[in-house]
Design brief:
Blueprint lengths: L3 E4 L18 E6 L7 E6 L8 E7 L13 E4 L14 E5 L3 E8 L6 E4 L3 E6 L4 E5 L2 E5 L3 E5 L5 E5 L4 E8 L27 E2 L10 E10 L2 E9 L4 E6 L4 E4 L18 E5 L2 E6 L2 E2 L13 E2 L4 E6 L14 E5 L4 E2 L5 H5 L4 E2 L3 E6 L4 E2 L1 H5 L15
Parallel strand pairs: 8-16
Antiparallel strand pairs: 1-18, 2-3, 3-18, 4-17, 5-25, 6-7, 6-29, 7-14, 9-12, 9-14, 10-11, 10-13, 12-19, 15-19, 16-17, 20-21, 21-28, 22-27, 23-26, 24-25, 24-28
The chain binds fe (ii) ion.
């Protein structure tokens, strides 16, 4: 991300910065990769190191199914019942050594603050709106927003109404803008499917100078620990730097189209260690007079492909519904179902809206995923033979 600042800052870092009563603010360097990666500097009213207690809340290590047979999967998330808050309601569906995919149907507001120290989070808000409150300030969000929250950020999500359907991706490596979209100065290039102004940094800093009893649930080492603070954790009067949460709307993604079919990388939105996130958005289709405007069958020999469908309009796929999730694993080809190519001929635009995650190591499913599975999906490629 680029440099951003909010609130009051001293003239230089590491100098005395005084409160109106003459006391010192506490400076905190917030780094996500040692002392040489992206970092921000925050100024707290209280000392962020002071806690009044802690409580073990147990393991959140995801249990995966081992040795599942190789086949295409279709999971239907639409029947999922609302459960818990934006954190406790996370249902892990799949993951690997690089990431976790959680499905969430949020039932209730968060009572505590949350911090994930195990990984960066990409939250995709399918149908809710509200405010992401964090120590870096507030970001208003709406349906179709990705919220990218770097590891270590204390935050709370407040929704305007419940239930809300979300995907919560946890990335063990940093989430970044793809290198090929940026120049040597880090600026986003003209051929990229978005520009800096599409990324919404915290819009205002809410500073709480309040004592009390506040709980921050910290996820670290696959375990939750509830930390108690004797002051409001959003006590920052100012910050600047390159690390902060931000929002990006899938509706602000500018699809790249071509005369003939363009490959999936043109949809890439985020880069992470071991996986990419892509956005499939409404767009004009390929304009060669004989173009086949949907993908050819492709052998993803080295990556697993997961698609979350925000609507039921996806040109190359039959039998999916809003909220469907398909997993096409590495090792076998996938592509349009029989009849899909013929049905797409002559179409000039698509209304599809979907989020895709391609991982470069195989994903393992959880038992929760199997509960959502349409077991007949693999047969949808069968053709009638005489
Ligand atoms: Fe694919």
């Amino acid at each position: 991300m680029r440099y951003h600042r909010l609130g009051s800052l001293p003239k230089k870092h590491h100098i005395q910065f005084r409160k109106p009563d003459g006391g010192l603010y506490t400076e905190q360097l917030f780094s996500t990769r040692g002392f040489s990666g992206p970092m921000s500097t925050l100024y707290h009213i209280n000392q962020p190191t002071e806690v009044s207690g802690w409580e073990d809340r147990g393991s959140v290590k995801v249990t995966y199914l081992e040795d599942e047979p190789l086949r295409h999967r279709h999971l239907k998330s639409r029947p999922m019942e609302p459960k818990g808050d934006a954190i406790s309601g996370r249902i892990p569906l799949m993951g690997n050594s690089d990431m976790e995919w959680h499905q969430v149907v949020v039932a209730e507001p968060m009572k505590s603050f949350y911090k994930n120290a195990d990984g960066d989070e990409i939250l995709f808000v399918h149908d809710g709106s509200g405010v992401l409150h964090s120590m870096f300030g507030r970001i208003t969000f709406k349906p179709g927003d990705y919220l990218v929250i770097p590891r270590g950020v204390i935050y709370r999500l407040d929704f305007d109404a419940h239930p809300v359907r979300m995907i919560a991706l946890v990335s063990y490596g940093p989430v970044e803008i793809p290198r090929r979209y940026r120049n040597e100065y880090g600026q986003i290039l003209e051929h990229a499917p978005y520009k800096e102004r599409d990324f919404r940094a915290p819009e205002a800093l809410d500073t709480f100078d309040e004592g009390g009893d506040y709980e921050v649930v910290v996820r670290a080492r696959n375990r939750l620990t509830a930390y108690k603070f004797p002051y409001h954790p959003f006590d920052v009067v100012g910050w600047d730097g390159y690390v902060f949460p931000y929002a990006f709307s899938i509706h602000d993604f500018q699809p790249i189209t071509g005369k003939l079919h363009m490959p999936p990388p043109i949809h890439q939105t985020f880069h992470a260690a071991g996986f990419v996130v892509c956005s499939f958005c409404p767009r004009m289709l390929d304009y060669h007079p004989e173009a086949v405007a949907i993908p050819y069958a492709h052998s993803n020999v080295d990556s697993d492909e997961v698609l979350y469908y925000c609507n039921d309009k996806f040109g190359s796929r039959k039998g999916i519904e809003e909220g469907s999730i398909t997993l096409h694993p590495l090792g076998i080809p996938h592509g349009p179902q029989p009849g899909a190519v013929e049905a797409a001929l002559g179409h000039t635009k698509t209304e599809e809206l979907a989020v895709m995650v391609d991982t470069f190591h195989p994903l393992k499913l959880t038992a929760n995923a199997l509960e959502l599975e349409d077991p007949a999906y693999w047969q949808s490629w069968k053709t009638k033979r005489s």
